[in-house]
Specification:
Layout: E1 16-17, E2 20-21, H1 22-28, H2 34-38, E3 44-46, E4 62-76, E5 80-88, E6 91-97, H3 104-107, E7 113-123, E8 126-130, E9 133-135, E10 146-148, H4 157-170, H5 179-184, H6 190-198, H7 206-210, H8 215-240, H9 254-260, H10 267-280, E11 287-292, H11 298-311, E12 315-319, H12 323-337, E13 344-347, H13 353-364, E14 370-373, E15 387-393, H14 400-409, E16 418-423, H15 429-435, E17 440-444, E18 455-460, H16 464-476, E19 480-484, H17 492-509, E20 515-518, H18 524-535, E21 541-544, E22 557-562, H19 570-577, E23 588-593, H20 599-610, H21 614-625, H22 627-630, H23 650-666, H24 668-679, H25 683-687
Parallel strand pairs: 6-8, 11-16, 11-17, 12-14, 12-15, 13-14, 15-16, 18-23, 19-21, 19-22, 20-21, 22-23
Antiparallel strand pairs: 1-2, 3-10, 4-5, 4-7, 5-6, 7-8, 7-9
The structure holds adenosine-5'-diphosphate (ADP) and magnesium ion.
Organism: Castellaniella defragrans (strain DSM 12143 / CCUG 39792 / 65Phen)
InterPro entries: ATP-dep_DNA_helicase_RecG, DEAD/DEAH_box_helicase_dom, Helicase_ATP-bd, Helicase_C-like, NA-bd_OB-fold, P-loop_NTPase, RecG/Mfd, RecG_dom3_C
Domain Helicase C-terminal: 463-634
Length: 688
């Protein structure tokens, strides 16, 4: 292939690019073994199998044309350009080069027949291709579409194509699925599917390839999901092999807890308590997620779990990601458990040294049976005499690193502690299946009686006065309100300043109201004073940053205003809204927004307006942000799934999960080979 007009810098097949060895560039794409290369699949294709009549050229299309150069000239504008016109019987097309190399024009002299390939665009003088690839007419055309692979800077397609073609010869492409499994799920064979996706024939629907719903894609996606399910099953088996103390309980605390409650637990709470109770009695560590929308009463379930562990002779640690949230838990848990004689300590980073030492000692000696606090609890210095259960609230707010630290805590003892995580941000079912299959899940799908759905209203910021009037009305009616300050993500100092300013403005605008201020930088003692005052009804309007986002529970709060709502994420808005409507009459959430709204902000606000169902919100959040961000893994830069899509491939995920169990039980060798092909390096990542 000659390429008359091709700029020199794109030298294909070069061993090195800008000094980075090719192996390193491949590594960047996660390509090490032949299997890695063979399963690196095209993003899209270019059709070089046929020649398009020039008259059929459309802007945006990649296509190959053949014709005669009818003119070519060098233009001296702001810079030198080479322009030529290609013509066939059906029409004319401009060809343009922004750099001119010696001899280039001579090669494109008028009267010469050439082929030109590239992306057609609407130029100043009609349709044109900038920097087309020029080839000789008469060379045979490929009979398959040309793959375009995901690549990284400095790695040309030609090099990737070559390496992948080689891998397709060298790699073992044997089918890792036994015929019985392929038949049961009507799966295409592996090798033909893979080859088809790398080099599809021209008769294959480009749409079915682009949409990933061709049978070949279905097979590959199934394989990817299956590999992930197999890895999760292994992680689960590894956990089953660990030892935990069986915490059966004797009812001495749990029975009294139930008897002393001022209300009946909901059916959902009773079910979750029973599931957790059964897990705690086992001799391998529980790993359970308690999901329940805001206000569904997760704390009570935690109290029952703690009580069962404590009556079985174990210690319990309860952690929350923020001081406010930890204090909220402490308040509830000690309200329920202290009357039963449970010795408890409170531990946060802000504790005076002497108190902290006493608390640590009480845990190390086993005098304290329950410890509640923030992450300070999981720091290395903290020792327990017999830690049997770790409960973490809103665990998704812990970084991945912190979760790992927590896991290691158990290594110190002979036994691993049981683990219960609680989250109000429901993980959509598909995501849970794909990434938390190693966890058992209990769901609180029922709210305690007497809750009214929060009404959500959207207000353009220019109608702020109406909102202020509304705050006044609510307070005169004996209720309280939250005002959430605009989020300033770029700077903590600015965020603080915004909170202080907002507080001042609202005080001036609503002079007859008692207006309080809460933000993350307040000393711990002041934070709890402010929260106490709000809880006691001594503050009418609480101006706050998102520190109130999770867990804060003041039933008399009937209105929440969120300023610059367009800056918040969907899950965050839902959490904030959950602070109102917690008993005691109707509740409203006002989303104040500043137009113009971006499309995505508009979608978010619409979702908030349309539904109060946390699961629906989570589903839309997933659709908007993708699983990586939802799981807090975005920074890791690693794609969670390359080919399958959790939204549209739910059925396939279901089948892959079933098949994983089948394979593990009946075809362990196939299972091993399958994992080897798909996940050589991805394991430790899945475990965290
Ligand atoms: P969340 O699931 O959001 O953490 P909480 O545990 O804070 O919810 O519970 C919200 C409120 O509901 C608390 O005031 C709690 O005491 C109360 N509550 C919990 N369970 C019940 C119940 N079964 N009946 C009535 N109120 C309940
Ligand atoms: Mg809670």
């Amino acid at each position: 292939m000659t390429s008359a007009g091709k700029p020199r810098r794109a030298a294909p097949g070069a061993r090195k690019t800008a000094g980075v060895p090719q192996a390193r560039l491949f590594e960047r794409l996660g390509l090490r073994t032949p299997a890695d290369f063979a399963t690196h699949l095209p993003l899209r294709y270019e059709d070089e199998t046929r020649i398009t009549p020039i008259g059929a050229a459309r802007p945006g299309a990649h296509a190959l044309f053949e014709g005669e150069i009818v003119d070519s000239e060098i233009r001296f504008g702001p810079r030198r350009e080479l322009q030529a016109t290609l013509a066939d019987e059906s029409g004319r097309l401009g060809l343009r080069w922004l750099h001119v190399y010696p001899g280039q024009q001579a090669r494109l002299h008028a009267g010469r027949r050439v082929r030109a390939r590239g992306e057609v665009r609407a130029g100043y003088h009609g349709l044109e291709i900038v920097h087309p690839l020029i080839t000789e007419p008469g060379t045979p055309l490929p009979d398959t579409l040309t793959p375009v692979y995901p690549t990284t800077q400095g790695l040309p397609q030609a090099a990737l194509r070559k390496a992948i073609a080689r891998a397709l010869d060298e790699a073992d492409l044997g089918d890792t699925l036994p015929a019985a499994v392929r038949e049961a799920y009507r799966l295409a064979d592996f090798e033909p599917s893979l080859r088809l996706l790398h080099h599809p024939g021209p008769d294959i629907s480009l749409e079915s390839l682009a949409e990933h719903n061709h049978p070949a894609w279905r097979r590959i996606k199934f394989d990817e999901l299956l590999a992930q399910q197999l890895a999760l099953a292994d992680a689960r088996a590894a956990r089953r092999a660990q030892a935990a103390r069986s915490l059966k309980g004797d009812g001495s605390l749990t029975g009294r807890l139930l008897a002393g409650l001022p209300f009946e637990p909901t059916g959902a709470q009773t079910r979750a308590v029973a599931q957790i109770g059964a897990d705690l009695a086992r001799t391998h560590p529980m790993h359970r997620l308690l999901q329940g929308d805001v206000g569904s009463g997760k704390t009570l379930v935690a109290a029952f779990a703690a009580a069962q562990a404590i009556e079985s002779g174990a210690q319990v640690a309860v952690m929350a990601p923020t001081e406010i949230l930890a204090e909220q838990l402490w308040r509830k848990l000690s309200e329920w458990l202290a009357p039963l004689g449970v010795a408890a300590v409170w531990l946060t980073g802000g504790l005076p040294a002497a108190e902290r030492r006493r608390a640590l000692q009480a845990m190390a000696r086993g005098e304290a049976r329950l410890a509640v606090g923030t992450q300070a609890l999981i720091q290395d210095k903290v020792e327990f005499e017999s830690l049997g259960l770790v409960i973490s609230d809103e665990q998704h707010r812990f970084g991945v690193g912190q979760r790992l630290a927590l896991n290691r805590k158990g290594d110190q003892a002979r036994y691993r502690p049981h683990q219960l995580s609680m989250s109000a941000t429901p993980i959509p079912r598909t995501l849970a299946m794909a990434f938390f299959a190693d966890m058992d899940v209990s769901v609180l799908d029922e709210l305690p009686p007497g809750r009214v759905p929060v009404r959500t209203r959207l207000f353009d910021d220019r109608r702020r006065d109406e909102v202020l009037a509304r705050v006044g009305e609510v307070v005169r009616a004996g209720r309280q309100a939250y005002w959430v300050c605009p989020l300033v993500e770029e700077s903590e100092a600015l965020q603080l300043q915004t909170a202080v300013d907002t507080h001042e403005l609202l005080r001036a605008a609503l002079p007859d109201l008692r207006v309080g201020l809460m933000h993350g930088r307040l000393p711990a003692r002041e934070k709890s004073e402010v929260m106490d005052a709000f809880r006691a009804g001594d503050i009418d309007l609480l101006v706050s940053t998102t520190v109130i986002e999770v867990g804060v529970d003041v039933p008399n709060a009937g209105l929440m205003v969120i300023e610059h709502a367009e800056r918040f994420g969907l899950a965050q808005l839902h959490q904030l809204r959950g602070r109102v409507g917690r008993g005691g009459g109707e509740a409203t959430c006002v989303l104040l927004y500043q137009p113009p709204l971006s499309a995505i902000a508009r979608e978010r606000l619409r979702a908030m307006y349309e539904t109060t169902d946390g699961f629906e919100i989570a589903r839309r959040d997933l659709a908007q942000r993708g699983p990586g961000e939802l799981l807090g893994l975005r920074q890791s830069g690693q794609a969670l799934l390359r080919f399958a899509d959790l939204e549209s491939d739910e059925d396939l995920l279901e089948q892959a999960r079933e098949a994983a169990a089948w394979l593990s039980a009946d075809f362990p060798e196939h299972a091993r080979a399958h994992r080897q092909r798909w996940m050589a390096g991805a394991d430790q990542y899945l475990r965290s």
